[in-house]
Design goal:
mainly alpha; 9 helices; globular; 0% strand; 247 residues
């Protein structure tokens, strides 16, 4: 059996990632272009930011509030995530994203005549909302994830305002979506990309490689740089809400 602490952490990461995909992608699928009353790009951007903000405060103090394989690996690179947590976190994050996408599919298919289409999946080239080429999409995902990790590490480090990190992290994800929805439909999260792509199928699944590699590279580079900017002794565990964490 898994240690109780690990069970709690994995449950928190599963729930948080499920909510991120269900809330963010759900807003894109159901509300972005709803006839005459769509929320548009801005609404979807805030939906993603609000999922992270709400779950950071709900379960972030249990697992660190990663909800994203790139964040987990970036924080590992920064010395903020223990080796033993990396693979289990990534597995439950992907599972949470897939199950959330499955729930969205079941709900959406309840509408007569509905077809999946892009299903909020990410893409480049012909599958990019703005038809941006793969190199441009790769660079965007790399840079946006890089800065996302820098914000996460910086706001959870010694000297930052205690208890408020969830707010800039959520707003950062909102800003990231405001920038990049037209470019890639915004990933910066391999789990978020995987769930919808499996239901959109075909070419979207074939392009998943980029939405794993680019965000993870950006996150790992940011994590390595973070070691030179913040005190290594304070970078031992990712904690969004509390100043101390479980062992």
């Amino acid at each position: 059996m898994l240690h109780t602490d690990m069970q709690r952490r994995l449950a928190a990461e599963f729930i948080g990632t499920f909510w991120l995909v269900f809330g963010g992608c759900g807003a894109a699928i159901f509300s972005a272009a709803f006839p005459q009353l769509g929320i548009g790009f801005v609404g979807v951007a805030f939906a993603f930011g609000l999922t992270v903000l709400s779950m950071a405060y709900a379960v972030g103090h249990i697992s660190g509030g990663h909800f994203n394989p790139a964040v987990t690996l970036g924080l590992w690179s920064a010395g903020r995530c223990a080796n033993k947590h990396v693979v289990p976190y990534v597995i439950v994050q992907v599972l949470g994203a897939i199950l959330a996408s499955g729930a969205l599919y079941l709900i959406a298919s309840g509408k007569p005549g509905w077809v999946p289409g892009a299903f909020a999946a990410n893409g480049y080239g012909a599958l990019s909302p703005g038809k941006f080429a793969m190199p441009a999409c790769f660079l965007a995902e790399f840079l946006l994830t890089f800065f996302f990790l820098m914000i996460i590490v910086g706001t959870t480090s010694k000297g930052a305002a205690s208890g408020f990190a969830g707010i800039p992290i959520g707003l950062a994800l909102t800003l990231i979506h405001l920038i990049s929805i037209p470019i890639t439909n915004t990933s910066v999260n391999p789990a978020r990309s995987t769930g919808p792509a499996l239901f959109a199928g075909g070419a979207y699944t074939a392009q998943l490689w980029m939405f794993w590699i680019a965000p993870i590279l950006g996150a790992v580079v940011a994590g390595a740089l973070a070691r030179t900017l913040w005190e290594p002794a304070t970078i031992t565990e990712t904690v969004v809400i509390e100043e101390t964490s479980a062992a």
